[in-house]
Design brief:
The chain is built from eleven helices and eleven strands. By secondary structure, it is α+β, with helices and mostly antiparallel strands. The chain folds into two domains: 155 residues, no CATH class; 100 residues, no CATH class. The two termini are 38 Å apart.
């Protein structure tokens, strides 16, 4: 499965990570614990500059097409983004619109630190890297743990702000407030019905004023944590069958159809078997009891890690409030809570 991570000219992978959790691809630079913004950007070779240029026409041989006066033919309604490498060379990234504004990786990450009340010198960066030839950037800020201790379960969830940005005119600047159980890394969206989790800003001239609202939109506060805890405790109090997850919940993830073929039925059955296996393991029901909280986490773990798709798609789906995976998580949450 393609990891999509970018490389420098000398073959170095543009990613760095806190060595307490090694990524599935085992690529990038391991760092001892959480790091400062500057240290992580440098370790990930993500501190390159992106520049915005005009677009000129060239012929099949790569020569500039010129007007009769010798000036190049410029396409006025388009711009291009280029990655400036450390050796002074450039790599093309994408063509973008004339309203597009470049925001450097360091700027996007520094803004995110301000949103969560951290400074550039704080060691809170968990991961950092670049995808698709450097046209996309991502990082993770560790916000500290949230403990769900109802009924003495002592379930610790790490809280993160996931940052992503594109230099391709397609992927916006996105700050995602996510909660990931430390032992299994499944992203959950519990509490989203009362608190918006994802903040998005386009690369346009009014982006500065929009990002000023990010802290309010994300609700990175005790209010969100309190709502998350309340919903989790509700789920913990709802007992569920020991044998398997209910058909009502499975129908959301793998619905039956009247016209399904034998192959489709076998695929659906394999999904149900996988989810039930996750539900019963020590990370869920075997560790926290046969309750709706374990069901919810099992569903999230399946959607975030076991679906048949690329790792990049799994990561993006977890960060995207409009993805089918996120919508399914919310539907399961409502079904379990009876709302």
């Amino acid at each position: 499965m393609a990891h999509e991570l970018d490389k420098t000219k000398n073959g170095r992978i543009r990613m760095a990570y806190n060595d307490r959790q090694v990524p599935w691809h085992r690529l990038g630079t391991p760092m001892k614990g959480l790091q400062t913004m500057e240290a992580m950007l440098e370790a990930a070779s993500a501190n390159y500059d992106v520049i915005l240029t005009k677009v000129a026409a060239v012929d099949d041989s790569g020569e500039l097409i010129r007007n009769s006066d010798g000036s190049p033919v410029v396409i006025n309604d388009s711009r291009a983004t280029l990655k400036q490498n450390f050796d002074g060379s450039f790599d093309p990234l994408a063509t973008v619109g004339t309203r597009y504004e470049v925001r450097q990786n360091s700027e996007v990450l520094e803004r995110a630190l301000a949103v969560v009340g951290a400074s550039k010198g704080d060691a809170v960066i968990d991961t950092c890297g670049c995808l698709k030839g450097g046209s996309r950037f991502f990082a993770t800020i560790d916000l500290g743990p949230l403990v769900i201790d109802a009924l003495g379960v002592n379930d610790k969830l790490a809280r993160y702000l996931v940052i992503s940005a594109g230099h391709d005119g397609v992927w916006p600047i996105r700050y995602s407030n996510t909660e990931i159980r430390a032992v299994c890394n499944n992203t959950v969206v519990l509490g989203e019905k009362t608190a918006r989790r994802v903040f998005t800003a386009r690369h346009t001239r009014n982006m500065d004023s929009i990002i000023d609202d990010a802290q309010e939109v994300l609700e990175i506060s005790t209010k969100w944590g309190d709502e998350f805890t309340r919903s989790a405790e509700q789920l913990l109090s709802i007992k569920t069958p020991v044998s398997s997850i209910s058909d009502a919940v499975l129908k959301i993830i793998a619905p039956r159809t009247k016209s399904e073929t034998k192959r489709q039925r076998e695929h659906r059955n394999s999904i149900e078997d996988a989810i039930n296996s996750i539900y019963k393991n020590e990370r869920n029901a075997a560790g926290y009891g046969y309750n709706a909280w374990s069901v919810y986490n099992a569903i999230c773990e399946y959607l975030d890690h076991y679906r048949f798709t690329s790792p990049e798609e799994l990561a993006i789906a977890s960060m995207d409030e409009n993805s089918s995976a996120t919508k399914k998580k919310l539907a399961v949450q409502r079904a379990l809570l009876g709302t």
